[in-house]
Amino acid sequence: MPTPLSPTDRTTLNRKKNRALTDRSALYAVLDEGLICHLGVVRDGVPLVIPTGYGRDGNTLYLHGSTGARSMRDSDGVEVCVTVTLLDGVVYARSVNNHSMNYRSAVILGKAAAVTDPDRKMHGLRVLTDHLAPGSWEHARDVNAKEFASVSVLELDLTEASVKMRGEGPDDPEDEVAADLSWAGVLPVRTVFGEPEPSKDLVRAWEVPAHVRDRELKGTLPA
Amino acid sequence: MPTPLSPTDRTTLNRKKNRALTDRSALYAVLDEGLICHLGVVRDGVPLVIPTGYGRDGNTLYLHGSTGARSMRDSDGVEVCVTVTLLDGVVYARSVNNHSMNYRSAVILGKAAAVTDPDRKMHGLRVLTDHLAPGSWEHARDVNAKEFASVSVLELDLTEASVKMRGEGPDDPEDEVAADLSWAGVLPVRTVFGEPEPSKDLVRAWEVPAHVRDRELKGTLPA
C-alpha cells in the first residue's frame, strides 16, 4: 500500500480533483524525474519564483546555493513553495477551448531550514549531486573545506505536498467527436539528453565516462 | 539597437551579473521558446507556485485559466511573479562543487490584471492559443459564448523583468584543469516534440495536419 499524501487545506486541490494523485510514490516519481524546481518565496510582500536544483532523500527535499544568494538567505526558516513540473504533451482538441496540456506536477509547501550540522550538510550535498549529476560524487573531486563553507544547503519536509497530472487525449463533447470537423490528439513533449560535449580544455583524450554517456532520465509515469 | 530591459531594484540581479542579459530581445526569446511558466502568488501570506500556460504579444504576457481556479481569481490586481526557465544542459566540472546547469530564465514581476474588454479578451485567447498550439486557432472550432464567459484572461506588463543565462562549459580553476583528474563537459538537455498521437475517437482517417506534424520549438539561443 502506498503511503498517502497528507494534504492540508493549502494543498487540497479545489478543482479537477480527478487529476490529483494521492499517494506518496507519485510525488517521489515526479521529484525524481525532474531536473529543476521552481522555488517560491515572499520578499517584501511580493512573490519571487526562481529556478534551482534540488535533490530528494526519503521524505526530505534538499535545495542549495551560494550563501551569498539572496533567495537562499531569504528561504531559511520561512515558508517556501517548491514546484516541479514535467510537461508531457500538448493536447489538441476539436475546439480551441478544450486544448490542454499533459503534465505531472508536484507542489510542496513548508518551512525551509538551513542544514548546519556538518555531516548532514555533506549528506545533503551528496543528495544534490546525485540528483543533478549521478555518478559525479564518485568521479569528480570532493568538496573541500572552503567550498563547504561557501555553500548553503536547505532542507524541506515533503509532508505537505500535492501531485497533479493530466495524461490522456482530448476531452471533447460527444457531438463534436461525431462531427469530426478538426483533428484531435496529443503532441508528446519529451525532455532528452543530447550528445555529451567534452570541455575543450581536457588535457587527455578522455572517453566520456559511463555515468555521463549512459545517463537516462530516471522517472517513470505512475501507473 | 535592442531596447534595454528596465530593471528595478527587485529585478536587478545581486549576483553573477555577468550572466544577466539586459536587452528586451533576450527576454522575448526565452518567453517565445518556453511552453509553460511558473506563476507565483502570495496566498494567506505564503508563496504558491503553479505551472500554467501563457502567451506573449509585444510587451504583454497573457495567462489564462478557468474563472473557477483560485490561482486565477487570486491573481487579478495583485503582485505576481512569472518565471519561465529553459534548461539547456548539465555542466560536469572537475570538482563536485563546480557542477552547474546551463539554462536561460526570465523572471517577470508586476500586477496581473483581468482582461474584461471582450475584444481584448478574445485577442488574449488567440495569443494564448497561438503559443500553446500554433495553427489551432485556424484549424479548431472557435470559442463560443459559453466558453468565452467561463475562461479568464490575465495580462501582465513585461516592463519589470530580468533574464539570466548560463551557456558554457565548466568553469574550473587552472590548476585543476591542468591536473586533468576528472572528465569535464556538458550534457545537453533538450525539449523535443515526439510523434503526434491521434485521438482514438477520430471518425475519419485523418492525416496529421501540418501545424501539428511540422511543429518545431520556436526559440533560438540569443547570440
Automatic annotation (TrEMBL), chains A, B:
A Pfam family recorded for this sequence: Pyridox_ox_2
Domain of life per record: Bacteria
Protein's name in the database: Flavin-nucleotide-binding protein
Originating organism: Amycolatopsis azurea DSM 43854
